[in-house]
Design goal:
The complex is a heterodimer.
Chain A (H helix, E strand, L loop, with lengths): L1 E8 L6 H8 L8 E2 L12 E2 L3 E8 L2 E7 L10 H5 L4 E7 L6 H14 L4 E6 L9 H7 L8 E3 L5 H22 L1
Parallel strand pairs in A: 1-5, 1-6, 6-7, 7-8
Antiparallel strand pairs in A: 2-3, 4-5
Chain B lengths: L2 E4 L5 H10 L4 E7 L2 E8 L2 E7 L6 H7 L5 H10 L5 H10 L5 H16 L9 E6 L14 H10 L4 H7 L6 E4 L14 H8 L7 H7 L4 H13 L3 E4 L27 H12 L1
Antiparallel strand pairs in B: 1-5, 2-3, 2-5, 3-4, 6-7
Helix pairs in contact in B: 1-6, 2-3, 2-5, 6-10, 7-10, 9-10
The chains are: A alpha/beta, B alpha+beta.
């Protein structure tokens, strides 16, 4: 059985859980606890364990999606989750500019972990106040050769497209190395 | 697409840099407590700016620039009610009171005087309206934002803010890939040019500071300005090991290996999602 791993990371409440939930064939494994700090009161429930989703591609091939914990105090788990990943997705909350700086920090951290391809998913593009992917690219100083993709995390087609683009990036890297 | 937020999350410098690089046309409105600022842009260049409480009549601009007296300004304002600034400017030039250069410089200085204070605003709601350009009857002067950002950054005083923006001096710099920018058109101070002359992926920011006998604060201010103007980018120094990720309790390995996944597996995944 071949197992492939993709990590989904990003700031608190960027939509990581919804992203994985949307495409996983199993219910996302997560644990809810009461929010402990006022600034986390953006949503009603929060995950304090990692999000985990599974997609059975074939009898001999499974894709696992791992979501990093949203709160910074759980970042010690990031290195563990990053080990062996094929690539990663950085989720951005397009309507909350106060999270951009943290997103940039998370992106830099994961880039330092492993030389694997990644894409940036500009989530919540269905909302009126969403910053455009191109504006987000400039705001976060994301290099031109990194894809910044529009995303609506509760839309299956949108989530699939983000994963596809990541896989294309993986293939491109393989081609370059050959 | 909306471009709105608050300056506490996205500074004036970052906003202007975004508008510059994206070559936006429209009006940026910033509301801070009781003061409102409006900045107009055309294809990424600043063309007009107002600040609440400022009288933006051309006569006042010329008087502030010392091109006409206070009495002349009052007289002009009293008589020229039916004329807009463009018509008034032509009249004054034709009558020999001021030159075209006087008008351009006065308007330019007025615009910049209304913009520079914004760099010290740490709080305020902003919204950018695309393709909205009020002040059609005003004289607009296209001003390159790189220079505005550099000067605004020079006026930036908070040391804590600089430290937050650039906590690590052991990174290197490289010139941003922007063929539309000619360094000769950018106005830099002597110190800034010294730093620019050392930009090389082999030199860390700390090393550049040491070569030029600059303090941490000085080099941070200069590099921050160059970054925000979109002239340079941060890179890992050539030959350096990967840095340990911030916040990790355990020292990260310098190189995490890529998984041994074959091309065929990736192609199967792509086929699966494309169905």
């Amino acid at each position: 059985m071949q197992v492939v791993k993709i990590v989904v990371t990003g700031p608190f409440s960027a939509g990581k859980t919804e992203f994985i939930q949307c495409i996983s064939e199993i219910d996302v494994v997560s644990t809810e606890r009461k929010i402990s700090r006022p600034e986390e009161r953006v949503k009603n429930q929060t995950t304090v364990a990692m999000d985990f989703g599974r997609i059975s591609v074939a009898d001999d091939l499974v894709l696992y999606l791992f979501g990093t914990p949203g709160q910074r105090r759980f970042d010690f788990m990031w290195e563990i989750l990053a080990e062996g990943m094929l690539g990663f997705v950085v989720m951005l909350d397009s309507v909350r500019p106060e999270t951009f700086r943290e997103a940039r920090s998370i992106l830099d951290t994961f880039r330092a972990y492993a030389p694997v391809p990644y894409v940036v998913a500009a989530n919540k593009q269905d909302l009126e106040d969403a910053w455009s992917p191109e504006d987000l690219r400039i705001a976060l100083r994301i290099p031109r050769d990194v894809k910044v993709l529009p995303c609506v995390a509760n839309n299956r087609d949108s989530v699939q497209q983000v994963l596809l683009e990541l896989l294309f990036s993986v293939l491109e890297l393989m081609d370059e190395e050959e | 697409m909306a471009l709105k937020g608050n300056l506490r999350d996205f500074s004036t410098t970052q906003l202007l840099n975004l508008i510059n690089l994206a070559r936006k046309t429209g009006t940026l409105t910033i509301q801070a407590r009781k003061t409102r600022s409006r900045l107009c842009f055309r294809e990424g260049k600043l063309v007009y700016a107002t600040l609440d409480g400022q009288d933006d009549h051309l006569a006042v601009m010329l008087q502030r620039a010392g091109k006409i007296t206070e009495e002349q300004a009052r007289a002009i304002q009293g008589r020229a009610e039916a004329k807009n600034d463009k018509q008034l400017g032509l009249l004054l030039i034709n009558a020999g009171y001021v030159s075209q250069d006087d008008v351009v410089r006065s308007v330019r200085n007025y615009i910049l005087d209304n913009v520079y204070p914004l760099f010290t605003w740490s709080e305020g709601a902003f919204q950018f309206e695309s393709n909205v350009l009020p002040f059609e009857d005003r004289i607009t002067i296209p001003i390159n934002l790189e220079n505005v950002i550099m000067e605004g950054s020079r006026r930036l005083k908070e040391w804590e803010h600089l430290q937050e923006e650039m906590p690590d001096l052991d990174v290197a710099l490289r010139f941003a890939d922007r063929p539309d920018v000619n360094m000769r058109d950018i106005n830099l101070s002597v110190e800034e040019w010294r730093v620019v002359s050392f930009i090389n992926p082999r030199n860390t920011v700390r090393q550049i500071a040491q070569y030029n006998n600059m303090s941490d604060f000085q080099i941070r201010k200069i590099v921050y300005g160059l970054l925000q103007a979109g002239l340079v980018e941060l890179v890992r120094p050539e030959g350096a090991a990967r840095p340990a990720p911030s916040g990790s309790a355990v020292q990260a390995p310098t190189t995490m290996r890529r998984p041994a996944v074959k091309r065929g597996v990736v192609e199967r995944l792509i086929d699966f999602f494309q169905k």
